[in-house]
Amino acid sequence: MTVATSEVGLSALQRLWIYQRERFPLARTALLLAVFTAASINVSAHLAGRPLPAWPSYLVAFVVGLIFFFQLRACDEIKDAEEDRLYRPERPIPRGLVSLSLIVGLALAAVPVAILATAALDLQLLWPLALVWSWMALMTAEFFVPDWLKARPFLYLVSHMLIMPLIDLFVTACEWLTVSGHPPVGLWLFLALSFLNGCVLEIGRKIYAPANERTGVETYSALLGPRNATLLWCAILVAAFAFLIAVAVAIGAPRLVSAIGFVGLIACLACGFLFLRAPDAAAQSRIDAMSGLWVLICYGAAGFAPLVLRWSAP
After folding, report:
1. CATH top-level class for 12-183?
2. N or C: which end of the chain has fewer CB within 10 A?
């Protein structure tokens, strides 16, 4: 597929703007990351009973987090290059809007930015930074067993979603590593929640309406069937809610966090039920959207509910 007529003659910046709109929407990603990084830092402080850190911790976590997620997008472009060429030629790279080398080059150019920002906050943070990048590199190489791994989709899911708690380990370390040098008790609950939320996002975006399934494009709805894929998504949501409650207890805000999470859970399960009743394109979009909204609700509740309780206390 060749670049669209309307895109011929566009400048590099204009092409990159179209690319981000289609593959890495900055506004939505920045909003999710702002909540995710700020909430993660807050939870780390809440777990340890410490005051919130100064603004540099939040800024570094956000900037490096944004770099991580763009680099993950670039890694996906590398992994999916052949599949996109064959089965999704309308995407920006196979249609010729931008080149794969440009996107990968931008991702690599962000490496020194992340290193400098991290080192400026605390040199010790370079270790969790390197850990995230090491796992990201292994993911891109499909752990050197691509065929074996792709034949085991649930192991594939687990191996790739482990990047989420590793990213959250770095983000929370912007608080705990700079203060005490060791993670607070109970942080593992929050990291487990991050893993489950990553699964919610990944499965939610790969539940397709039957009419939208494509030959050669791997989805959980094609692998398991629309019903079973939706039930799996719902089951992981329930598990995530259970860990959210555990985190809420650990940070001392069980009622408010649980109430907020319960409303979000019911809304998500309702979308799943609607998809089961009528698995059309609209229901597919609702599941995708609610996956992101669930993550926003989850981190927002865990990270900010204790502050609300503190500020509203007489």
Report:
1. mainly alpha
2. C
